[in-house]
Amino acid sequence: MSRSDPTWLGRYQRAMCDQAGNGQRFIEDITAKRREARRDPVNGKAPDVLHLETMRDLNIATTDAPSMEPMQLSPFEALFLNTLECLKVRDSDHHIYSHTELWQLLAVSSKQADEFALKYAAYFYYRTRGWTVKSGIKFGADFLLYSKGGPSNSHAQYSVIVRRQDTRGAVDESWQYMFALSRVCSQVRKALIVCYVDRPTAKNAGGIHENEEATVPDLTEFQISEFLIERFNPNRK
Q1: What pLDDT digit, counting tens, does each position of 177-201 carry?
Q2: Which residues are catalytic?
Q3: Are 181 and 192 in contact (CB under 8 A)?
Q4: Nearest Cα to 196, choosing from 217, 173, 170, 226?
Q5: How is the chain classified by DSSP, letter by letter?
Q6: pLDDT tens track for 83-106
Q7: Rounded Cα distance, 219 and 103, in Å
């Protein structure tokens, strides 16, 4: 069953709009065009038929506009774009956060600043290597890695879980957990990567100490090691 709201009313309204000839477009029309474009690739890449259309150009029906999915950025995406000076974050008083203020806001609000720093280091690592990195929470992972083009053109190739380097070799997860996660990944045709992050001292990594605020980590001090986990299939040749 679909997780979205019933669309029978929208379909009826669209049919009435088509008869009236007013040219209104609904969310389903946009989705249908995108799917049609993916089925008809040009030079091996699916064209984005809506790339040049802005919200006002779409002429979305008034009743359908509230159901449009808003753009949502994860804390890691926001920090990365802020680092590149592609994103400015304001509060309700229109104060623009500096990069340090934004880091402090997100790291402290996560309540696990050390873990936040580790995951951001992993996010930065994959993002700067050309991967499109999205949340992997729906598959029990920390991140999903998409090749060039992102989620609009293909499914994720890898699921990534991030762990501390000092837990490498330790039984920090049960075999049942790892088997279940590996099974989930194989069922959705993704490979599982365990990403170990070797972090510097807690203070430099954004650690929270008593009477001390989180500091922006120096990402050059982090070291990343990766392991690809695959399920053993005796029937595979």
Answers
A1: 888 888 888 888 899 999 999 876 6
A2: 146, 155, 190
A3: yes
A4: 226
A5: --SSPP-HHHHHHHHHHHHHT---B-HHHHHHHHHHHHHS-BTTB---TTTT--HHHHTB-TTTGGGSPPP---HHHHHHHHHTT----B-TT-PBPPHHHHHHHHHHHTS-HHHHHHHHHHHHHHHTTT-EEEE-GGGTSSEEEE-TTGGGTS--SEEEEEEEGGGTTS--S-HHHHHHHHHHHHHTT-EEEEEEEE---TTTTT--BTTB------GGG-EEEEEEE----TT--
A6: 999 999 998 888 999 999 999 888
A7: 13
- Residue for token pair 């008034």: 62
Residue written as token pair 């802020």? 82
The yes-or-no verdict on residue 218 having pLDDT over 80 is: yes
Nearest to 163 by CA among 205, 102, 118: 118
> Which residues does residue 89 pair with via DSSP β-bridges, in sequence order?
none
Q: pLDDT at residue 65 above 60?
A: no
Distance in angstroms (rounded) separating the CA atoms of residues 133 and 151: 9
- Angle of CA points 189, 184, 131, to nearest 5°: 50
Instruction: Give CA–CA dist 233/237, Å, rounded.
Output: 9
